[in-house]
Design a protein that fits this description.
Elements (H helix, E strand, L loop, with lengths): L1 E6 L2 E3 L5 E9 L4 E9 L6 E6 L5 E3 L7 E6 L4 E6 L8 E9 L7 E3 L3 E5 L2
Parallel strand pairs: 2-11
Antiparallel strand pairs: 1-3, 3-8, 4-5, 4-9, 5-6, 7-8, 9-10, 9-11
């Protein structure tokens, strides 16, 4: 089992910045990938950015060049620096952890944090 605690959402004007943080606890030694997904009203949950073991990162095309995912393995945290925010970035953002395939590859989710981009 992995527990996730998120922080950092809020209201920001277009063009502004926010940083989301997520701390993992529990079976942290079995973690492969940490990252962020988001879900806007009426839409499916979608990948935003992930950081896999070995340092491989993956970004949605819509956020490339604006968002940066970082991971601190010593502190078991993952962060999402969001710059040049747009109204279409408005969504609930979820921290995600996926366990190593050898340990079952289970996904764990945070409770979600609201990000609203509006003037």
């Amino acid at each position: 089992q992995v527990q996730l605690e998120e922080s950092g959402g809020g209201l920001v004007q277009p063009g502004g910045s926010l940083t989301l943080s997520c701390a993992a606890s529990g079976s942290i030694f079995n973690i492969d990938t940490m990252g962020w997904y988001r879900q806007a009203p009426g839409e499916q949950r979608e990948l935003v950015a992930t950081w896999a073991s070995g340092g491989r990162t993956n970004y949605a095309d819509s956020v490339k060049g604006r968002f940066t995912v970082s991971r601190n393995n010593a502190k078991n945290t993952v962060h999402l620096q969001m710059n040049s925010l747009k109204p279409e970035d408005t969504a609930v953002y979820y921290c995600n952890v996926r366990l190593k395939a050898a340990m079952g590859g289970n996904n764990y989710w945070g409770q979600g944090t609201q990000v609203t981009v509006s003037s």
